[in-house]
Amino acid sequence: MASRDDILGAVRRAQPPATAHPGVAGLGNRFPDLPAKFAEMVAVVGGTCLRVPDLAAADRALRELPVHREAKRIASMVPGVGAATFDPVAVADPHELAGMDLCVLAAELGVAENGAVWLDVRKLPHQALFVIPEHVAVVVQASTLVHDMHQAYAAISHAPGFALFLSGPSKTADIEQALVIGAHGARSCTVLLVGA
Prior knowledge:
By secondary structure, the protein is α/β, with parallel strands linked by helices. The chain has a single domain, classed as Rossmann fold (3-Layer(aba) Sandwich). The protein has five helices and ten strands; from the N terminus they run ααβααβββββαββββ. The strands form three sheets. Strands 1-10-6-3-2 form a five-stranded parallel β-sheet. The protein has a three-stranded antiparallel β-sheet with strand order 4-5-7. A hairpin with a 4-residue loop joins strand 4 and strand 5. It is globular, with a radius of gyration of 21 Å. The N and C termini lie far apart (67 Å).
């Protein structure tokens, strides 16, 4: 027992003096035009960003896209956006979501530095709604945009459960260093930036 105490005592004595964490205030990027930078970064990560004034315009813009016009099974978690063909809330077994062409989701905020959106999946009837469809459309309010991940983490409130940052369509370059879009999730991601 004495040797254990000796070792722990030596470790405690060797600790550097305690210092206060400086915090993250003032760190990170600042962009003069958040909506423009966000739209630019959505494109960089392989997505499409459409800037629209309101939800009615978001609906019109989405309906004009081939991913919507050609879709047969559409789910929308944003009232008034997208011509939903079924209600995912009424689906008891998530396996029944297979074959979904398009899903419209609402994001809580968008991050200008990387084009990511924060999705609180706890608010969805099925977690699979963002990975099962061939195409995903995400509605985000321009008023929720933040400059960087420092601000994003400060803005989100996350209790236990599943939530995530989504940035563009599914992609991987693990095999032979070749970029593949839609390898393990949506083949496209359209972000409808409302109020920009």
